[in-house]
Amino acid sequence: MSQLIDRNGRLADDWIRIDDEAAAGGAGVEGASVLLTLAQWRAHPARWDAHDGPLGILLGPADDPEAIADVLPRLKLVAVEFPSFTDGRGYSIARLLRQRHGYDGELRAVGDVLRDQMFFYARCGFDTFALRDDQNVDEALRALGDFSEAYQAAVDRGPLFERRAAAAGARVAAGAGAR
Q1: Which contacts of 89-95 are long-range, i.e. CB under 8 A and separated by 24 or more positions?
Q2: pTM to 2 decimal places
Q3: pLDDT digit string (tens) for 61-74?
Q4: Which CATH code is given to the segment(s) 3-148?
């Protein structure tokens, strides 16, 4: 069982995963927070459009986020699978969901989620993290603050040169207003 965290600490995971048979019928999940694979959702879209509880979709590294673009407003959670720490496709999926498709719901990193990559998950737009069982929660939370600055633009902030220029402009404006 993975350990779910966000930037502030541990979280309870209220989402349930169901097998393909349950996805077809949906019995017993009325009102529940259900996390479906993309294949399960595609197989029974009308059934899940009518679901009366929160809905989430799990994307694998080979899944195209464009496939769920039209239902993103309905989704409370998009989980992105990292099958291996060396597979970086999930970072691209997260950034596409946040920047191209404007997804503002919960974006969760799942699978081979490691402390050493926490900072980078957050930069790409993930806000919750299902840590691998052998990962220390306190260490993972500290890892989100490993770096005080980042030069490149990302989902969480623009490039350093723009932030410096904006800060300098604000100081000039504040100085001019003080006269």
Answers
A1: 89/61, 89/62, 90/61, 91/120, 91/121, 91/124, 92/124, 93/59, 93/61, 93/63, 93/65, 94/121, 94/124, 94/125, 94/126, 94/155, 95/124, 95/125, 95/154, 95/155
A2: 0.82
A3: 999 999 999 999 99
A4: 3.20.20.70
